[in-house]
Amino acid sequence: MRVFHSSGALGVLALSVIQSTAFAQGTFDRTKPPELGPPPRVALPPIVTRELPNGLKLMIVEQHELPLADFVLLVGSGSTTDPTSKTGVANLTSAMLREGTATRKSLEIADQIAFLGINLSPSSSWESSTLSLHTPTAQLDSALALFSDVALHPSFPANEFERIRKSRLTDLIRLKDQGPAIANLAFPAIIYGSGHPYGAATLGTEASVKSLSVADLQNYYQANFKPNNATLIIVGDVSPSQIEQKINAVFGGWQRGDVSPLTYADPPKAGTTTIYLIDKPGAAQSSFRIGAVGVPRSTKDYFALSVMNTILGGSFSSRLNQNLRETKGYTYGANTRFDMRRAAGPFSASAEIVAAKTDSALLEFMKELNGIRQTVPPTELSRAKRFLQLQLPGNFETTQDIAFQLVPVALYGLPLDYYNNYVQNIEAVTQADVARVAQQYINTGSLAVVIVGDRKSIEPGLKAINVAPIVIRDMSGQPIP
Amino acid sequence: MKTKYLVTLCYLMGSVLAVAPLDAQATPKIKFEKYTLPNGLEVILHEDHSTPIVSVDTWYHVGSGDEQLGRTGFAHLFEHIMFMGSQNVPVGAFDQMLEAAGADNNGSTNEDRTNYYENLPSNALALALWLDADRMGFLLPTMDLAKLNLQRDVVKNERRQRVDNVPYGRADETILAALYPPSHPYSWPVIGSMADLSAASVDDVKNFFRTYYAPNNATVAIAGDFDPVAVKKLVAQYFGPIPRGPAVKRRTTVPAVVIPQDKFIVLEDKVQLPRLFYTWPTVKLYAPDDAALDILALVLANDKNSRLYKKLVYELQIAQNARAFQESGRLDGKFQVDVTPMPGQKVADIDQVVRTEIANIIDKGVSTRELQRAQNSYKASFLDRLASVLGKADQLNTYNYFAGNPDYVQQDAARYERVTAADVQRVARKYLGKPKIVLTVVPEGKKEMMLTAAAAGGAR
Question: Are strands A274-279 and A448-453 parallel, antiparallel or unpaired?
């Protein structure tokens, strides 16, 4: 049984959207939706925090529903620490963690993972590197021994690195097959340029991956994988005191060390709205990524932006999806998002659009991006707020769900009661807030419109609608010499 | 862990029923209550009060396998129309009302069944039931050509996004057409062809609804935080008055799949690297050899220690990836292996390793450790399927429909426990020792890169 210690936050909200008077005693009127009672009283599970003598922070949440536990070792460094000429270092370092330790060979690690029936997966992002373990508690000790060995004693064997490098180079070749993947890489390269780490490819480039050595990975690992630069999130069928002892036994010997703080140059100032067209001959759909540099996770406008984005393109009933999919039928789905990081991450509006409607779709994108700057009707505001507030309990259902929700708390230093205050913070957002953040952060005069598609068939239409000048870029988003 | 169904298409992008592997305890039972309304609607209830949310998962016993030639893709197109409103739910209101209540909702279609679910805070259960009842009972009064045309365009874009604009995306439908005779219900893809999607008419929608979307052809599973007395009352009130439809006649057999000798085919695509696909006809879901074939797939191509992956990807490094699946449904199944060569590697060299490794299993069997690893992976996956109320609702529906009994999770888990090394060797010989379909997807204009019978050492 999951215990939610109630703070009553959700319970006091009145639902204003779904109301009816016709649902009563024995008979009912099918024409009216049922009147719903108040949302369930929930609060989020308490987070127990501990810190080992070496500086490793623990965030522990008990969840005893099934004999399972999830562990996420979150190291606070990622691709943004890659040297400019050595992009891909952080990503390949993570990929190499399971490829050998001082006492286990690559095939032995794979054998133990399958034999124990566990998941042990490394990954890396812009500002973090993670090692995740999902295990039945029956295997807890064996799983933790393997988990900590992979985290703390990777040996980066040269032969395994050569194999992984070849595989990565092949991945990079295969990216050229996929329009959406090309758009995802070109868009940040265009809005951040090569001077900002958010503009670089986390996977690296062919040139950088070829130039890397085992020493580069070891240096990255030594510089960043330190207990005082990490948080271990633990969720599941464990007790805090018992698990702290077990963690101390396997992670206690990890040596602390200095880690350089992350500092970034300011991103380039956005130019006037421009279409960056990348040719993908014969593409059945055009991949749209429209946007600009957005905001950091620390923005005071987080909640207003969440509500505004939900209305614009953050839900199925959002304006952009309703227009492009449910009214026009140009796409299977359209969305917008603010990717918030330590520094200002990108804002983007995205969709895969049938090639023949590329120009028509661009007009609709621009219409919605302009339209959100006007005051939104109260019903739309209310629906977006309820959507964000009432989905909260469902985001804390499984051990994996809870661990996932704790990652931004650890990574961005959010307060431990962040989710307990979430409902009130969303509730406080007003029509004026939504209009203000839309006007402040979505400037249709300075957007990068990245379109990957069949140039021959889509360029004439894009020229004809005359929304913005068109420049042709290569598959990496770079000017074509 | 792979999905057990052949293909599942969703109303929305993204899939919610992710299942990750783990664990090694005994598989717990899922407690439930099942009953049937007078109109034939099956109801399955499972209480779980650990989180104040509830899932409503409605299965209609119809899928793309029930379609007629010339109307492929219709079951899935119809699924989309089910979100477009009904007599008491204006266009657009279905999703708006659910989102305002904090719901996450979607639907999906595969060869055998179509499902619709809502996952929502427990206070909003009545809303989900009201909406689902309205579209089960009162869809047609507001159904029109405009709704059909709109979702036809959306689905065509779904096809572009999943198939036509995806590298190797047309491989599946190419294999199905080569593997099965045209009268076989799995011979066409769930998404259908563009021409057939264009041909679907409003009359097709009406006839399909009247034939398959009756309460006597559906099961509603409700799992989560609810009061069973109150829920039964609501279900009776909302769904009870919907009239029973005519008895649904569905296919119970399929034409025999006969492949007299290896068949080598080629498909050109916008890809940098070729990919080889091997497909053998096998058995349907829960047939006696189904679990052993699942285990064989893990032994053959899964992690680094699996036979094909280890040889092709890890040791020789002539392939970028190697995968294997037993995919089985209500009526039939197939086993597939696919391998993507590294740049510059020849498919004939890949093929030689594939043939050798399969022959090794047929001739010498598998080790105890290989069997244990695969069995432990399956054992662990059963625990994960119980982590969410939506996962449990869908498990109950799966067992109710395919096994004829919602109470089947322990029997399902036991199937994998019973598999022996000899079983794995036997099914390798029985199925993978037989003729197959070999598709090579090649870069456009490079048909000469395909694997031919001659290069494969002659057709079996």
Answer: parallel
